[in-house]
């Protein structure tokens, strides 16, 4: 049974039993679910339904969800079943059926639908956990017996194996897993499910979700009992096709064959080759789907996960002897293989392949440098009789040279060397301390959202947002709470836009007979909101009180200008740079807009000017801006862009700016592009690896910026004593004069320094020798200085060392006649470079080297001096 038939048979089985088929959500979780970086399970997108925060489209659901788990990255290739990316088939009940029906469905589909021998099916159940205060799941055991599974094939396991949770907190519950006994060819008769061996392969997990896990192992009952199941498509395919591992199925075999074709190696010829081919296949699938879902390689969060598997793929290709670029061909093969089931891969083909080319080109340089440095660490450890590489050295490879620590650790293990992973992680943590300074604020925000959710649950219905149509409303209070001295107020109707989609929340006032409060924030909840207020007069409003809710009009208008300008900017970037550009974060407030977008290179001044001019052209054209609601399918047909990390239902809101821009967006906008007034880009910088950031202002903000620039221009003209239109030529003239003056000074300083070094030269045999550390010399000046000294001395050997920042630099120059007698400059710098923890090379007469141990420059020069003296004598 092929994967396509397995997928369809599963979904059709549950559709026939009243389940609504859902499309897969993105691998990038909704911005409202910060608990995980990537979608790890079929239930992940359904968490609001299980929690009772949103109404599901039906009480019974089924889906094939694409998933990615980072915990298994290092196990990939070593076992027959571990994967990073996989397809999870599942059936779900939101307060409908529970354990009995879930067990009956699973057993029926397994035995009658997929044809598994009932005598080979084993079951695991939750055996209880003292910390959670739960005993064995006797109810599930009884239902398994009822469908015909004997007691001897029901195995009780602990919390680690049979209690499912989505994260450290969140929906959870006991679970029951179905295993297939693959027979004695795969293991001994004494083995059992849960032993993590190959004989018993788990293919379906039934989660009886009835709790919400809080901090400290505290369990609360969910609003209703739910069912969440997961059957891995790849494992089912391996079992139904009778192959030893998932990698022999048609889902992987074409990718394995590509690796064989490119390398000339064969799957199964050795563990090393088999593992490398499996990693290519798994990571190729994972990276292709991550890229198609809008993730780009970077050094942070999910971008780091993507970069890690892309780089592991390249490294394993090298293990196979593949020196040519591999990612583009591999990802292209994945798209050919998987686009039938996942058509969006074909639509994102060019974006996927672009990032494949860019990342492989960049990392190839990193690999070569990193492997050279790693080889030096290995050689030094062996020379010193150590079985371990210093954590500081491994960290420096990662931090300074970009060589992933996971790869360094794997390569060191292949050489029989260890590294203190805990120490490296601590160094990494220290390096991230600056970036974590905002973590306290993020924690406060999450805590406030939790308290706002508690207030919202007190009300009988959700707040109706009326802020698209009006900026003030007469309404009533539904619920009231407190948070750290502030009021949390839930209204029946609200004109306040809650922060979301990059747009900041509205502020304003609430007023009534009870008093007056200043609205400082609006917390967005699934299909709901709660206002955060400062009480200014009177008493907190009681539930049922009448309220006049008024939005700060000027703040809203400024924000609307910036939001519409963001859509125009996005369109201009895609037209100018290419369709690979995607929004990767934004801030839309009354003061400015900030737009992060995926792009691998800095924008030059010409590109920035072109983008700015295009946006202002559209502003000047008074393009109509309209918002309308439609089905998600129709929005896709119209080409509306769905934004990274947002959650969309079947019914969506589209914001359209003439024929220039069409995006799914819940934000507030002006009615015509002309209302923006003026658009001005202030800065274009890097936000993260492969992510650029533009900050811009519009309307009054742009006018204020123009006034400041005009004043600065007038001041410059006065200082330079030229008309404003001659400022640029005047500055260019000053730059030339400054450059010439600096050259004259450096030439004079260099001459004095060279003469001083010549005076200190030693005569060794028939040659002059200068081996010195010099201070205050830039690396580019070191070569000129060494050459001047040798020219003055004639038959001479000159080796100079200097430290610049955190790097040590060496330059060696040797007279041609000495180089011919086997005293080579390139060999000298290699001797010295080994001491400073670096490498180098060059010609027999001139060579350079660099390293990271600035403090060991003197030691390096001493070793090189000894080598020079030995050769000359």
Alpha-carbon Rg, integer: 33 Å
User: How many domains is the backbone divided into?
Assistant: 5
Largest sheet: 9 strands, mixed
Q: What would CATH call the architecture of the largest domain?
A: 2-Layer Sandwich
Attribute tags:
BirA Bifunctional Protein, domain 2, alpha+beta, Elongation Factor Tu (Ef-tu), domain 3, 6-stranded antiparallel barrel, 5 domains, 873 residues
Explain what this protein looks like in three dimensions:
It is a single chain. The chain is α+β, with helices and mostly antiparallel strands and 873 residues long. The chain has five domains: 3-251, BirA Bifunctional Protein, domain 2 (2-Layer Sandwich), CATH 3.30.930.10; 254-382, no CATH class; 454-551, Elongation Factor Tu (Ef-tu), domain 3, CATH 2.40.30.130; 556-704, Threonyl-tRNA Synthetase, Chain A, domain 2 (2-Layer Sandwich); 754-872, Diaminopimelate Epimerase, Chain A, domain 1 (Roll), CATH 3.10.310.40. The strands form seven sheets. Strands 1, 2, 3, 4, 5, 6, 7, 8 and 9 form a nine-stranded mixed beta sheet that branches. A six-stranded antiparallel beta barrel has the order 13-14-18-17-16-19. It has a six-stranded mixed beta sheet with strand order 27-28-29-30-32-31, with helices on both faces. The protein is globular and about 100 Å long. The N and C termini lie far apart (79 Å).
């Amino acid at each position: 049974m092929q994967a396509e038939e397995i997928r369809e048979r599963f979904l059709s089985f549950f559709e026939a039993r009243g389940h609504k088929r859902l499309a897969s959500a993105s691998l990038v979780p909704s911005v409202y679910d910060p608990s995980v970086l990537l979608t790890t399970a079929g239930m992940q997108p359904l968490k609001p339904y299980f929690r009772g925060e949103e109404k599901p489209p039906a009480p019974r659901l089924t889906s094939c969800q694409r998933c990615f788990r980072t915990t298994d990255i290092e196990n990939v290739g070593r076992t027959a079943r571990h994967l990073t990316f996989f397809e999870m088939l599942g059936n779900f009940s939101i307060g409908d059926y529970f354990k009995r029906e879930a067990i009956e469905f699973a057993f029926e589909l397994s035995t009658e639908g997929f044809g598994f021998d009932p005598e080979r099916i084993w079951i695991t159940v939750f055996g209880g956990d003292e910390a959670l205060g739960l005993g064995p799941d006797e109810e599930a055991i009884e239902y398994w017996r009822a469908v015909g599974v004997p007691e001897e094939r029901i195995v009780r396991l602990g919390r680690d194996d049979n209690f499912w949770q989505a994260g450290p907190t969140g929906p959870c519950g006991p679970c029951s897993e179905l295993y297939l006994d693959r027979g004695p060819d795969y293991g001994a008769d004494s083995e059992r499910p849960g032993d993590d061996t190959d004989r018993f392969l788990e293919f379906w997990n039934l989660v009886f979700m009835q709790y919400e896990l809080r901090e400290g192992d505290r369990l609360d009952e969910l609003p209703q009992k739910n069912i969440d199941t997961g059957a891995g498509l790849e494992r089912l395919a391996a079992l139904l096709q009778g192959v030893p591992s998932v990698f022999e199925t048609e889902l992987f075999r074409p990718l394995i064959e590509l690796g064989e074709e490119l390398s000339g190696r064969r799957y199964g010829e050795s563990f090393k080759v088999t593992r490398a081919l499996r990693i290519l296949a798994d990571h190729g699938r994972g990276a292709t789907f991550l890229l198609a879902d809008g993730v780009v390689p970077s050094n942070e969060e999910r971008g780091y996960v993507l970069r890690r598997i892309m780089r592991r793929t390249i490294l394993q290709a090298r293990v196979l002897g593949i020196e040519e670029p591999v990612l583009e061909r591999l990802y292209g093969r994945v798209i050919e293989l998987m686009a039938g089931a996942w058509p969006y891969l074909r639509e994102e083909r060019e974006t996927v392949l672009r990032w494949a080319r860019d990342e492989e080109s960049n990392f190839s340089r990193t690999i070569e440098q990193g492997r050279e440095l790693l080889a030096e660490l290995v050689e030094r450890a062996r020379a010193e009789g150590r079985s371990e590489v210093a954590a500081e050295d491994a960290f420096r490879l990662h931090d300074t040279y970009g060589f992933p620590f996971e790869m360094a650790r794997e390569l060191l293990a292949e050489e029989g060397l260890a590294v203190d992973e805990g120490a490296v992680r601590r160094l990494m943590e220290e390096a991230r301390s600056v970036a974590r300074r905002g973590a306290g604020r993020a924690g406060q925000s999450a805590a406030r959202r939790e308290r706002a959710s508690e207030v919202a649950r007190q009300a009988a219905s959700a707040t109706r947002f009326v802020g698209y149509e009006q900026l003030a409303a007469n309404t009533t209070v539904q619920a009231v709470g407190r948070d750290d001295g502030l009021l949390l107020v839930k209204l029946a109707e609200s004109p306040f836009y809650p922060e979301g989609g990059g747009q900041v929340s509205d502020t304003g006032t609430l007023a009534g007979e009870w008093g007056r409060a200043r609205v400082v924030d609006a917390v967005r909840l699934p299909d709901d909101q709660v206002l955060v207020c400062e009480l200014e007069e009177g008493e907190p409003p009681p539930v049922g009180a009448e309220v006049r809710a008024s939005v700060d009009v000027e703040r809203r208008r400024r924000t609307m200008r910036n939001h519409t300008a963001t859509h125009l900017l996005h369109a201009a970037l895609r037209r100018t740079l290419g369709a690979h550009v995607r929004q990767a974060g934004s801030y839309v407030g009354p003061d400015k807009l900030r737009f992060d977008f995926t792009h691998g290179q800095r924008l030059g001044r010409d590109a920035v000017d072109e983008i700015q001019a295009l946006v202002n052209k559209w502003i000047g054209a008074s393009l109509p801006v309209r918002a309308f609601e439609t089905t998600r399918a129709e929005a896709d047909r119209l080409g509306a862009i769905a934004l990274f990390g947002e959650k969309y239902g079947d019914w969506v809101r589209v914001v359209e700016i003439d024929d220039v821009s069409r995006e799914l967006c819940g934000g507030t906008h002006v009615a015509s592009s002309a209302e923006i007034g003026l658009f001005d880009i202030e800065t274009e910088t890097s936000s993260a690896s492969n992510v650029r950031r533009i900050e811009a202002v519009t309307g009054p903000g742009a006018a204020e910026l123009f006034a400041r620039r005009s004043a600065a221009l007038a001041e410059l003209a006065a200082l330079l004593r030229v008309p404003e239109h001659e400022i640029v030529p005047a500055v260019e003239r000053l730059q030339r004069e400054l450059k010439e003056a600096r050259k004259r000074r450096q030439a004079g300083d260099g001459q004095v320094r060279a003469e001083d070094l010549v005076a200190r030269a030693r005569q060794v045999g028939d040659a002059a020798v200068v081996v010195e550390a010099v201070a205050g010399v830039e690396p580019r000046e070191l070569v000129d200085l060494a050459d001047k000294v040798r020219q003055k001395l004639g038959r001479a050997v000159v080796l100079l060392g200097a430290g610049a920042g955190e790097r040590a630099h060496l330059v060696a120059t040797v007279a041609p006649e000495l180089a011919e007698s086997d005293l080579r400059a390139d060999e000298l710098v290699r001797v010295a470079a080994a001491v400073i923890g670096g490498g180098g090379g060059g010609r027999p007469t001139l060579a350079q080297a660099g390293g990271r141990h600035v403090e060991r420059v003197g030691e390096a020069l001493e070793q090189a001096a000894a080598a020079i003296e030995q050769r000359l004598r």
